[in-house]
Automatic annotation (TrEMBL):
Pathway it works in: Amino-acid biosynthesis; L-leucine biosynthesis; L-leucine from 3-methyl-2-oxobutanoate: step 4/4; Amino-acid biosynthesis; L-isoleucine biosynthesis; L-isoleucine from 2-oxobutanoate: step 4/4; Amino-acid biosynthesis; L-valine biosynthesis; L-valine from pyruvate: step 4/4
Keywords in alphabetical order: Amino-acid biosynthesis, Aminotransferase, Branched-chain amino acid biosynthesis, Pyridoxal phosphate, Transferase
Protein name: branched-chain-amino-acid transaminase
Organism expressing this protein natively: Microcella pacifica
The reaction(s) this protein catalyses: L-leucine + 2-oxoglutarate = 4-methyl-2-oxopentanoate + L-glutamate; L-isoleucine + 2-oxoglutarate = (S)-3-methyl-2-oxopentanoate + L-glutamate; L-valine + 2-oxoglutarate = 3-methyl-2-oxobutanoate + L-glutamate
Matches recorded under Pfam families: Aminotran_4 (PF01063)
Required co-factors: pyridoxal 5'-phosphate
Amino acid sequence: VCWSEHGGWHRPRVQPYGPIALDPAASVLHYGQEIFEGLKAYRHADGSIWSFRPDANARRMQASARRMALPELPEEYFIESLRQLVAVDGDWVPTAPETSLYLRPFMFAKEAFLGVRPAHKVAYYVIASPAGAYFPGGVSPVSIWLSTEYSRAGKGGTGAAKTGGNYAASLVAQAEAAEHGCQQVLFLDSVEGRYLEELGGMNIVLVKRDGTLVTPQSASILPGITRDSVLHLAEDRGHTVERRQVSIDEWREGVANGDIVEAFACGTAAVITPIGMISARDFTIGSADAEPGELTMSLREELTDIQYGRRPDPHDWMLRLDA
Ligand code: PMP
């Protein structure tokens, strides 16, 4: 779909995958005026195709659009774009366990203009790509690297928007994590460098011995839909959930004195992933060969069962895309 200041949203169509022609002065290429989303289509046992809380992705994309001075795509257009793509590419939704069709809606400024101002011409696309199981050999804990030199987002910045620049800002830190044998990077707040923010592409939740779940509250992290869902499921089970500032020292001391018994990362790609070890320049927390936590794994099972239609969906989170 295209958008222009005078014409609004127009020209919806499904086209074969291929390159997009852009003017060399298209403002996205210079100023990064761009946003995206990520969600999955799941095949249920009867062959039907569903997505998980696409309304939440649509609303988050609207919030990202407001922050990035892009037009808000109406929720019904967002959902319709997924339906139309699945109508054409539905055969691509794989059937093997834990596989899915990854959907990547994105919007960018295509107006050719070298001045710095919001563009008046925008394009919205969705690409679809079959995704294998994230953990083909069974879920294994991730190791994470604590970045102290870099922050992902500052106060008043774009941290809560799903925009490419946030990911660009995290690439060197992600590379540093890989050099230290870690799969993900952990960012702290940019003001005091003490409070947990999130990982490169996932939110964080800690589990205390008494069953309380604690997750960072911050205006500069991406409000993850997986995290919101998992915390709802935990609350349904009677767990207390604390959304507040959590410092790295609280995590470190909590693990040392047995008060924090599990930690997991969550996001669309890996669903829920146990965190085994945190490595920092001068200390480590946990161990790389830690067993996945019990609550972590049971919440993971409950959420994936809902997504794959293996158990009831009490919150009406699933939306059928092929009917
Ligand atoms: N934080 C970041 C930086 C992410 O890229 C993602 C993945 N979209 C998440 C958190 C988790 O969000 P969600 O559960 O909506 O996938």
